[in-house]
Amino acid sequence: MASFPSGVTIVTTADPSGRWWGFTATSFCSVSMEPPLVLVCLATDAECAPVFQRATRWIVHVIHPEHAQLAMRFATRGADKFAEAGFVADDNGLPVLDVASVILDCSVHDRHPAGDHTILVGRVQNVRTGPETPAVYFRRAFHLLP
C-alpha cells in the first residue's frame, strides 16, 4: 500500500475529562454528499482507540507538508502529541490546528470493525478550508503536489 499515494490527516478528539487525543491516518475518504459523510480508519490497538470508540465528535485535519513532522509525532505511540503543535480548543473543547488545508468538524455517524482497524464514519458538521496545498504520502515520504 506504500505505492498508493494518499492524503494525510490528523484526527483529534477529547475524552469526557477534556484530555486531548489524536492519531495520524492516511486511510481517509469521502463517503456521501447527502448526508455529508467521511470515513477514517483507526488501528484497534492504538492508544486512543478506546477514546474514539466513545467519542461523539472528532476533527479531521487534512495537513500540508509543513506538518509532516507533526503527522509523524501523531503516528508515534507514547509521544506528547499536542506539545507546542499549534492546537487550540474549539467551542466543544476539541483540539483544532490553527492552520491546515482542510478542517472537518464531524459528529459520529457510525463505527464498523474491519480486521485490525475500526472504520469511523463521521457526519461533517462544519468545514474550514485554507490556502495551503495538502501533503501527499507516497512510498513512506511526504510530497508536495506540483
TrEMBL record:
Residue intervals passing through the bilayer: none
Domain Flavin reductase like: 1-144
UniProt-listed GO biological process terms: pyrimidine nucleobase catabolic process
Keyword Oxidoreductase in record: yes
Cross-referenced Pfam families: Flavin_Reduct
Keywords linked to the UniProt accession: Oxidoreductase
Keyword presence, Oxidoreductase: yes
Molecular function GO terms recorded: FMN binding; riboflavin reductase (NADPH) activity
Origin: domain of life: Bacteria
InterPro entries (UniProt xref): Flavin_Rdtase-like_dom, NADH-dep_flavin_reductase, Split_barrel_FMN-bd
Protein name: Flavin reductase family protein
